[in-house]
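The step that takes the researchers longest sounds almost clerical: writing a folded protein down as plain text. The outcome of that step, for a single protein, is printed below.
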Amino acid sequence: MDINKYIASGILELYVYGALSESESADVTRTLKEYPEVRVEVEEIEKALLTLSSAAAPYDPEFLLHSLKEKLSRRNKVVDLTQKRNNWPAYIGWAASILFLIGLFIQFNENRELRQSLQALQTEKIQMETEISEARNNSQKAQQLLSVLRDKNILKVPLQGQSIAPDAYATAYWDKEKNITYIDAKDLPLPPRGMVYQVWSLKMDPLTPSSIGLLDKFEDDENKIFQLENINISEGFGITLEPEGGSETPTMEQLYALGTVSS
């Protein structure tokens, strides 16, 4: 037997693909046992198929095409040119290889589209869960604030706009028992970039300001209600505009709102 012609005939590819009849497959099996070089060639074909299959997983269709072309090219070099016209088994083997490649590409594209759809759904799910969580937190926060504002033991202190911003307005809700002051700053203008509102507890005589905190992330807070710790005996509250990070003493030229505690 001319082993090179037998290998180049394409029958081994058909054998590996499972495209032979039962008797033809049995003949190839006997040949495998008789000729070690044929067995090695079958193992190489099987190995090439495994390589092609695994190449589809990491999104590398170019490698698939390159691998198959290389194998077909090597087959083409082995076949005697005078035998090509009548070498129908080889052509059938190559056709089976092409069909196998097309099947891999179809499966690859379907899997890629499925992965993209799943990723889009996952992203949409995460976004929806985030929105639901934010809505739930906002609802809980709103309920908590309503209960605070309606508490008869909470002291309400209106803070009127000053000369730098006459239309500004804020309200301080002081819970003496819990040492907490809530600032409703919805009617304060948006602070410029690099600036922040700072809230001061005031002792009036002599005027002694004590910082109780910053209205951080002012733009991001939808409710514009801020909770600040206040351990002071407050006689009034003031809000000034300060450089980001706050100041040790209030900048009086940037006093936006001021109000005193009613006796």
